Amino acid sequence: xxxxxxxxxxxxxxxxxxxxxxxxxxxxxxxxxxxxxxxxxxxxxxxxxxxxxxxxxxxxxxxxxxxxxxxxxxxxxxxxxxxxxxxxxxxxxxxxxxxxxxxxxxxxxxxxxxxxxxxxxxxxxxxxxxxxxxxxxxxxxxxxxxxxxxxxxxxxxxxxxx
Amino acid sequence: xxxxxxxxxxxxxxxxxxxxxxxxxxxxxxxxxxxxxxxxxxxxxxxxxxxxxxxxxxxxxxxxxxxxxxxxxxxxxxxxxxxxxxxxxxxxxxxxxxxxxxxxxxxxxxxxxxxxxxxxxxxxxxxxxxxxxxxxxxxxxxxxxxxxxxxxxxxxxxxxxxxxxxxxxxxxxxxxxxxxxxxxxxxxxxxxxxxxxxxxxxxxxxxxxxxxxxxxxxxxxxxxxxxxxxxxxxxxxxxxxxxxxxxxxxxxxxxxxxxxxxxxxxxxxxxxxxxxxxxxxxxxxxxxxxxxxxxxxxxxxxxxxxxxxxxxxxxxxxxxxxxxxxxxxxxxxxxxxxxxxxxxxxxxxxxxxxxxxxxxxxxxxxxxxxx
Lengths: 162, 371
Fold this sequence. Notes:
The complex is a heterodimer of chains A (162) and B (371).
Chain A: H1 12-21, E1 30-43, E2 49-55, E3 64-73, E4 79-87, E5 92-97, E6 105-107, E7 120-122, E8 128-130, E9 138-142, E10 152-161
Antiparallel strand pairs in A: 1-2, 1-3, 3-10, 4-9, 5-10, 6-9, 7-8
Chain B: E1 37-40, E2 43-48, E3 51-56, E4 60-63, E5 66-68, E6 70-74, E7 81-82, E8 90-98, E9 104-112, E10 129-135, E11 153-156, E12 161-169, E13 178-189, E14 213-215, E15 232-240, E16 248-258, E17 273-282, E18 289-297, E19 302-304, E20 310-315, E21 318-324, E22 339-343, E23 348-356, E24 361-370
Parallel strand pairs in B: 5-14, 7-15
Antiparallel strand pairs in B: 1-4, 2-3, 6-8, 8-12, 9-11, 9-13, 10-12, 13-15, 16-17, 17-24, 18-23, 19-24, 20-21, 20-24, 22-23
């Protein structure tokens, strides 16, 4: 069967592109929304500083940002073997799992994943050295348990804008 | 049924955010350029009832904002520019470094400064006139009049530095010692070569789709004249009239020009014509001596040759390029700045040489005959 989308006139292509760019949820039961948050410090009347995470609008090099993946099972069936693979965007340096988030597996090449201590990168002199958070190129979560129907959760990592 | 063990993030309130640490110390050129769009998308694989599926997360995007930062320092090696009265185009040198994550223009504003206490030593007691500011357009580190003509910093790349010169004239007279100047540098929009961009204004309302302007500059002078996060910087330098004396020497020599007997090797015989030559030398290279005056008594048993005083540059037998002076003390008709006279009563030759430049020498010659 030809894909019915293909039969639509070419004018639909930019429309489809726009829909993809917007927070359009895929048709599948698992919906994942990506968010970028940053710390906003506000000083309360009693002198304490409250730190809130707000959508990233004013971000300059050196600022901390938190990348969030919020997922939800909108279907009626449990979803298993969920793997969320998040390439670290260019210009972003991975730092740590966000507080309250499960720790992700890390990779410095997109192929081999594991805890940071297990990763090595090639050094200039032909040898390898232990990877640092700056070397991380991919962040991956592998959910051990299925997401039940209607369940949701969030995963996040902290990073710094280079 | 398994309970989902992944806990949700506490998104608001006093969220205890783990210490993330800032990016490692890096230079502005390594910083992500303002205007860069950073997007994050995760790809997801999963199974439903044993069937493998894939999807992508939505894409979260933000635009890197402009972190305006720069430094301005006096680049004089900690010294003051030594000047002399009447000097024109005296230069103090500064250095502006762009540490913004993007290309910047900078306005430059030179000014007199009385409040440089603590930043430069000495007391400001005069003002430079005709203060101007120029950028080192040819990047050779020295001010080239007519070449370094740009009056604003144009399109300075991240981490790049450029020399900026304050150029001014020293008053021609007075008992003066020091003039302090300051260079104010104000961040302006880059992006258009050979055009001075508009002054930057920090963005009040944050936007995620456009490049916000964020001032990140420090209090550049540390004394509160400049303020942190104002997009401006100041640095201070001084002009000093430190030279109060010069190494002035006079050497005198005699040469028998003719004796009426021998033409090849004239001797000091009675009736011989003798030229006395005085070299006035200023060994101080950086300052000229003004109002230099020579007095020389014609020796006994000689007779001054009227109209024989010449003053000029050294060479030949004494003066190579010079002017012959008259003997009278009336200098009203003199126009070349040097005058001389002979007093027949006390047999004194008086030569008013005037200005002897730094490292320069002026020659004075006069002739006598041996009695």
